Amino acid sequence: MAQHPPAWMEALVDVVAECFEAHSAMGPLGFRYLEEATHGELVLYPTPVELVGGAEDGTVVVPGFALDLQALLDAFEYVTAFQWCAHGFGPSDPDGPCVSLEGLYQGHEVWLRVLAEPPEDEEPGLRLDTSVGS
Known about the structure:
By secondary structure, the protein is mainly beta. Helix content is 14%, strand content 43%. It has one domain.
């Protein structure tokens, strides 16, 4: 696996980011990827937010969000599968609930998953000062 995703995957990350509507403070999207000869796999998720200061100092929360599914679909040349997986892809899938899409993006076959929550090992992408008077 390359150290950096190919340009077409970086462009897709940007497209998905534009489809997010955060319900609270949100850091950058986290993502993991795999590029193979025949297709790419891309998993995106909101990064956790660490609350700093105030009564909740040190608490890590997951920001709520809405995802514009129509805008996401419109970014693809074609889509062969599109589904909401309420419990992930089964008991052996650690990623949990997600929107799953398979299709063609910029000439590349891709399996995209947008997770409802970040993987357990993901570090906070934002530290939010919640102290009074800041």
